[in-house]
Amino acid sequence: MNLRPQEKTYFCANIAHCDDARKHKLITKSGSAHCSLCGEALQFARWKTHWHKIGMYVGTLTLAAVASFPIAFPTIHHHVQFKSAKTEVYEEDAIVEIIVQRTQFFEQTQSIQFNTRAGTAIAGQDYTVLSKSVFFQKGQREQIIRVSITPDSDVYERNETFYVSLENVAAQPEHLVVIKEAGVNKDLLEKGHLLVSSLSSLAADLANDLKQLELLSEYLSGQNEPNPVLVNKFNDTSDNIQRAREKYLFLFKDAEELDPNVIENALNSQLEILKKGEFKTQYAATRVMKTQLLEYLSSRITNTPQWLDALRQVTDEDQGSTIPTNAI
């Protein structure tokens, strides 16, 4: 169907042999450039205007403009607001309910559009992304917006936030939603504390053995006929360090399976316990181990010689020292 408002018209110039030409009949081309009666080539006459088609265009555009007016120029509502500025919700609550209220115009019906917007929470992962409307019936003063929260209790996270905003309300008010951390899975906490406790003891043992090996080495190297008991002690200490070194790396690998925040909390708890008990060497060794473990979890790069050297220096640094009250 041809909807163009104007078309070219043609005529046949073969007046001697063609009735259409003698009648000056105007022809609209339909795929052929020749007269259908005599076969003579057609000549351009003029443009033909279809006013009814122009009327259809104008009518269609008018209807489209009317239909799109609410979208292009939405109604802005006044005296609509959130009942409170902030809502706190725990992950396991699954849904947060936010109250929207009207303060005037109760006799009207109103459709209020709202959207969610990410803060520190991840849209679509920590909460459901929404772009919808709530509808106030005549006489209705309050409506409720409900947003689903996605629980993730196996991972330790800080409190997270997102926002709900009223789009077609004056000043576009926003409501803050705080997703409070529900806590960590108890099994993960226990695993983290057991692993850190083992590493703490192992770090202290390594610090003592490395220092002892250094002293034995210095002593034995200056003896022409070293004491066999001390030689055996040197060999036993070397074997102990090798076994402890392998276990140290093994526990670092185990830590990869746990959330780094769980590990860091367990490390801080262990340091608090050691500080209160005045276990100076183990406290110092655990502080060194904490730095090494967190760096390893971040980079996955092992540097055993440097780690052992740092632990060897622990006993030098804590001779006659006290645990600082503000150090963890």
From TrEMBL:
Q: Which domain of life is it from?
A: Bacteria
Q: Where are the transmembrane segments?
A: 54-73
Q: Which UniProt keywords apply?
A: Calcium, Ion transport, Membrane, Repeat, Signal, Transmembrane, Transmembrane helix, Transport
Looking up InterPro entries in the UniProt record yields:
CaCA, CalX-like_sf, Calx_beta
Name all Calx-beta domain ranges: 64-167
Asked if the record carries the keyword Transport, the reply is yes
PANTHER family linked to this entry: NA_CA-EXCHANGE PROTEIN, ISOFORM G, SODIUM/CALCIUM EXCHANGER
What's the protein name? Calx-beta domain-containing protein
Native source species = Pseudoalteromonas aurantia
Q: Supply the source organism's classification.
A: Bacteria, Pseudomonadati, Pseudomonadota, Gammaproteobacteria, Alteromonadales
